[in-house]
Amino acid sequence: MALMQIRRAAVALFVAGTLAACGGTPSAPETLSLERSKTAFEQVGIDETRDDVTALVSTATRVGARLAAGDPRAASTAVSPWSVLSLLGMLRAGAQGETAAQLDGAGLGAAKNLPRAMAALTGQAAQWAGDPGTVPTGTPPASPLFQSQVALLTAKQPEDRRVRPEYLDALAASYDTGVYPVDFGLGVGEPLGEWVAVNTGSSLTAAPLRTDADTRLAAATTAYLAAAWRFPFDAARTRPAPFTAADGAVLDPLTMRGTVPARVAAGEGFTALQLDYGTTLALQIVLPTPGTPLADAASEGRFTAARIALAGAPSTPHEVSLPKWRTSTWTGLADPLRDAGLTALFAGPGLDGVAPGSPSLADARAAAVLTVGEKGTATDTATTAPTPEPAPGPAPFVVDRAFAYSVVDTATGMPLMMGTVNRPGA
After folding, report:
1. Residue 127: pLDDT above 70?
2. CA separation, residue 424 to residues 102, 243, 255 (Å)
3. Taking Cα atoms as reference points, which of 223, 184, 160, 200 lies closest to residue 356?
4. Per-residue pLDDT reduced to its tens digit, 220-237
5. Is the Cβ–Cβ distance between 419 and 341 less than 8 Å?
6. Burial class of residue 132 (count of CB atoms within 10 Å of its CB; 0-12, 13-18, 19+)
7. Cα separations (Å) of 61 from 19, 55, 331?
8. Is the distance from CB of 359 to CB of 323 less than 8 angstroms?
9. What is the pTM assigned to this prediction?
10. What is the DSSP letter of 332?
11. Which of 149, 284, 165 is nearest to 219 (CA)?
């Protein structure tokens, strides 16, 4: 996280210097600048708070499943349950009354010591943090890079209505971050777009956040993954293959093929596949049995059952066929969170612990960028000229219809990304 703050500071200085050299007054809002406490981040080991971490994994899976299955017509979806969980935890640190009760009821209350558990998970995710702008096109890193950020935007206010110091202390201690004070009256599109570009490797350069001059609190999250497969596919074997979308349409997306070590499991209504990245990260595919709706595969129960089943499955060679796909998208959080019972966040009062006057959340959006190809997950993966198909390999696993997926930290079970693929290549 410190690396990204340095990079943002450098961009801010460049912009300020350019304006000064031109001799003009800035007509656009300033670059986002993080305000955080000097309180040190609390280093907590996962095993020191394992039960609470397990409870929060269930909460993140529930939230992620709700968001991943949001638009059944979408070619693909992607959201980071971890990023959204971080945002909710940050808001819980300043919540009171009914707002706090609703957040606890949504699953945060399952952790006996939420700040300590979130500190452990934040430290776990920090091992993969880095600068998406350094990832070469088509060359995913051997060591996974997962960049997850939360921008909690707060209105610049007079001294008596500013963000409370004790709230900034809480964010620094458990989340290793702070808030971004902005002048909502000037608009946040340009500075937030720059922040998004930095944190997604310019895969996204704008944020559709809805704010106005009266806004006091808004939020955006980003998640970007670049990681090489532990066992890559042979690009020469990639070719079009039949794939059935959720509405029955038959497509011919580019499909990777390879005999690779993988975990395979089955449960009621699904089969599942796990392909490993480096360290403890893995891509898990939840393939509904024929006739089972995609929404069922993307449910909390199916994601959880698949994760548990795959954890107990051996890693053995399988002949895997998997479509390539790319997802770079924003997901609105306000309506799904309201539907989940978190109405007080947006109507208040109840966030008086954030700042005097109990600001309510005007809008919240989540961005996610994921590209899956022969080498792994990166900004792009090129396909070479096809070669003749070899003789059939062992134990085939063919992904030939709409499916759900999750990028999981297998050490904790935390879903870092979740989504669906309905029309790969569309």
Report:
1. yes
2. 37, 9, 9
3. 160
4. 999 999 999 999 999 999
5. no
6. buried
7. 45, 10, 16
8. no
9. 0.90
10. E
11. 149
